[in-house]
Specification:
The protein has 118 residues and is an alpha+beta fold. It has one domain: Arc Repressor Mutant, subunit A. 46% of the residues lie in helices and 12% in strands. The chain is built from five helices and three strands. Strands 1-3-2 form a three-stranded antiparallel sheet. The radius of gyration is 15 Å and the shape is elongated. Pfam families: HxlR.
């Protein structure tokens, strides 16, 4: 049995839209991070991604599936669908970790530059 996803795994005040490196869309990198420990159901993904709408999460998952990063598997039974990383998706984990570390180090400069440009 997998551990449940931590509802606080993404800081709600972290402005993910300032992340200079993205996979797919605003939510792609966070979805990939949620799938790092193994397959997850849609409802499990909604826990830490609490501000995403179901419609947008569906769109993001489909885009990640189209790009070969995620695989969608339907299990027998009543609507049991899981999403998991493919080897290609798993290959992004180190890159995303490096991008996240870089953004944490440079977040103030990024925010200052964007504010100055307005």
């Amino acid at each position: 049995m997998r551990e449940p996803l931590d509802p606080e795994m993404f800081d709600p005040v972290c402005p993910s839209e300032v992340m200079p490196i993205r996979v797919g869309d605003k939510w792609g990198g966070m979805i990939i991070q949620c799938l790092e420990e193994g397959p997850r159901r849609f409802s499990e993904l909604m826990v830490p991604l609490r501000t995403v709408t179901p419609k947008v999460l569906t769109k993001s998952l489909r885009a990640l599936e189209r790009d070969g990063f995620v695989v969608r598997t339907e299990r027998a039974g009543p609507r049991h669908v899981e999403y998991a990383l493919t080897p290609l998706g798993r290959s992004l984990l180190d890159l995303l970790d490096a991008a996240r570390a870089w953004a944490e180090t440079h977040m103030d400069a990024l925010l200052d530059a964007r504010e100055a440009a307005q």
